[in-house]
Amino acid sequence: SHAFIYNIDLFTQAGITKLPVTLDEFKDACSKLTAIGVQPLSSGFGEWWVLPQTTYPSMSDAYNGDYAKLFADIKSGTLKFGDLPQVEFALDLTDLSKANSGNKPMESTFDMQCSDFANGKVAMIHQGSWAEDSVMKIKPYLKIGFLSQPRMDGTAVLAVESNLTFRVYKDSPYLNEVLSWLDWLTTSDYGKAWIPEKIKQLSPQIGASTPDTQLAKETGKYIAEGNICPWWIFAGPDGIEQPFGVAFQNYAAGTTNRNQTKEALTKVFTDAYGAE
Predict the structure, then answer these.
(1) How far, in Å, CA of 57 to CA of 50, rounded?
(2) How far is residue 44 from each of residues 54, 77, 92, measured CA to CA in Å?
(3) How many CB atoms neighbour CB 74 within 10 A?
(4) Distance (Å, rounded) from C-alpha 268 to C-alpha 241?
(5) pTM for this structure?
(6) Contact at 8 Å (CB) between 108 and 101?
(7) Residue 229, SS3?
(8) Top-confidence residue, 172 or 191
């Protein structure tokens, strides 16, 4: 799961009594944090992969969530990805993140995000549940939570997905051993506990325990409420994540404007489908 992670105590100190949901509410929260001398965000924009994760959840209301239709229309040429109105919204979010991430937002890395956040220099980072372990190694008792991601339609979501897959070679001479191992992984007590207890992430397995971490509990809450979106961008063609991120990264760096970024995003998908 990923979205904006926030420092609960800093939000309280800033007088933020209602967690932001809309883009305007995020702007207001940033203003309140700045007023008490706290930098609102550390962008992570020095890492290309942070940009897709920051932007695509806020575009998840595109086509009312009919991603199969969306990508079919892009593949057929009926739709240019850059023409989606949600792209404008994602660019607005990128502007907001950059404007509230200090003097050098393009130098912010994952390690800097975790360090700045853990040490109270910043109140928010856009990261995933995997960042909690890095943060807690620096500040073990920090109180943190997830902020759902604003969307153009006024709703807000947390991006949640099971994104790792074991692939088995059907003609392997060790097929029986592999299947036996997978059976052990998914049925034994140790195997079922591996993801929640060793990796400390929510497991997709039915009956698996919930990890005793703050963001896992937050994720469970969002899932129960239904305020989630899938990692929908991966329903599109293969190989788009990095060029997609670089297109937004170039925009954040100021090397491309909005129209150029929309054209670049359109090209990401036309090139990927053309290579199939």
Answers:
(1) 12
(2) 9, 33, 17
(3) 21
(4) 9
(5) 0.88
(6) yes
(7) strand
(8) 172
Q: What's the CA gap between 176 and 254, in Å, rounded?
A: 54
Query: Cα–Cα–Cα angle for 104, 109, 110, nearest 5°?
Result: 145
Distance from C-alpha of 51 to C-alpha of 134, rounded to nearest angstrom: 20
What phi and psi, each to the nearest 5 degrees, are found at residue 258? -65, -45
Q: What span, in angstroms and rounded, lies between the C-alpha atoms of 246 and 230?
A: 21
Q: How many CB atoms lie within 10 A of CB 82?
A: 20
Task: Give the rounded distance of the alpha carbon of 157 from its chain centre.
Answer: 10
**Residue 22 class from Cβ within 10 Å (0-12 exposed, 13-18 middle, 19+ buried)?**
middle
CATH fold of 2-160+228-274: D-Maltodextrin-Binding Protein; domain 2 (3.40.190)
CA distance 178 to 171: 11
pLDDT tens digits for 205-223? 777 777 778 998 898 889 8
Task: Tell me whether residue 258 is exposed, middle or buried, using C-beta atoms within 10 angstroms of its C-beta: 0 to 12, 13 to 18, 19 or more.
Answer: middle
Let me know: does 269 contact 248? Beta carbons within 8 Å.
no
In this structure, is the dihedral angle defined by the CA atoms of residues 33, 35, 41 and 42, taken in order, positive or negative?
A: negative
Q: What are the tokens at 113?
A: 């995000």
Strand 39-42 relative to strand 122-128, pairing: parallel
Candidates 76, 237, 213; CA nearest to 131 is 213
Q: What is the CA radius of gyration of the chain?
A: 20
- Average pLDDT, stretch 249-258? 98
Mean pLDDT to the nearest integer, 87-112: 97
